[in-house]
Amino acid sequence: MIRTVFFDLDGTLLPMDQDVFTKAYFKRLAGKLAPLGYEAQQLVDSIWRGTAAMVKNDGGCSNEEAFWNCFCEIYGEKARRDIPVFEEYYRVEFQDVREVCGFQPAAADIVRALKERGYRLALATNPLFPAIATESRIRWAGLEPSDFERYTTYENSRYSKPNPRYYEELLKELDCAPEETLMVGNDVDEDMVAESLGMKVFLLTDCLINREGRELERYLRGGFGELRRYLEI
């Protein structure tokens, strides 16, 4: 029996083309930081290096610390003084990135339906963004952060997808049995790895990401209609 449902965010509850989203995100961020002397291409490369540091994080620090430690190796410790500018970016310019994302009413509908039926819900989005950015994207999907018992951010997480320890940590924090937990996501590598822990998985195919071209027959899969039928909503 499934008692808890973990949802991915980008490409799952919030429809998007990942490449289009990333370009819009970096364009606005580079514009914000240019007056502070950050050259656009170096900034983008540095953000990617910081992202890689979070993906490789072995749990010795938060993802936030892993990112900023890496970023400051490139720009020096003085870069930490610019953190408030990054935060302002997420409050202001980042909000315009919403225009390149889609909207799927069925996503918010199924979350609310599950909540009404007593399921425990968590937002298992890859914790590479600060809370302010994650909370914004939750709202872009027509939901509120309070709809979830927990949502992962770079401040509160020490691992990232596709590391199974990311899911282990979330299961432990919520005291959930893996065999009673369903992971719903659109990324074959990052989301379906939850199956290795004994969790059930559902591959949402609306914005499918399958980098390695893996066979999909082994997974329960489909759109929100198929997900509702699987959960008998």
Oligomeric state as shown? single chain
Shape: globular
Residue stretches low in confidence (pLDDT < 50, at least 5 long) are none
Q: Which CATH class of the largest domain is shown?
A: Alpha Beta
Number of individual domains: 2
CATH superfamily of the largest domain: HAD superfamily/HAD-like
CATH architecture of the largest domain: 3-Layer(aba) Sandwich
CATH fold node name of the largest domain: Rossmann fold
Residue share in helix:
40-55%
User: How much beta, percentage-wise?
Assistant: 5-15%
| Gyration radius, in Å | 18 Å
Task: Write a short abstract of this structure.
It is built from 9 helices and 6 strands, in the order βαααααβαβαβαββα.
Write the layout of secondary structure elements.
Elements: E1 4-7, H1 18-33, H2 40-55, H3 63-75, H4 83-91, H5 105-116, E2 120-123, H6 131-140, E3 150-151, H7 164-174, E4 181-185, H8 188-191, E5 200-204, E6 220-222, H9 224-230
Parallel strand pairs: 1-2, 1-4, 2-3, 4-5, 5-6
Helix pairs in contact: 1-2, 2-3
Structure characterization notes:
This protein has 233 residues and is an alpha/beta fold. It folds into two domains: 4-16 and 102-230, HAD superfamily/HAD-like (Rossmann fold, 3-Layer(aba) Sandwich); 19-98. 42% of the residues lie in helices and 10% in strands. It has nine helices and six strands. The chain has helices at 18-33, 40-55, 63-75, 83-91, 105-116, 131-140, 164-174, 188-191, 224-230, and strands at residues 4-7, 120-123, 150-151, 181-185, 200-204, 220-222. The chain has a six-stranded parallel sheet. Strand 4 (181-185), helix 8 and strand 5 (200-204) form a beta-alpha-beta unit. Helix 1 (18-33) packs across helix 2 and helix 2 packs antiparallel against helix 3. It is globular and about 55 Å long. The model has no long low-confidence stretch (mean pLDDT 97).
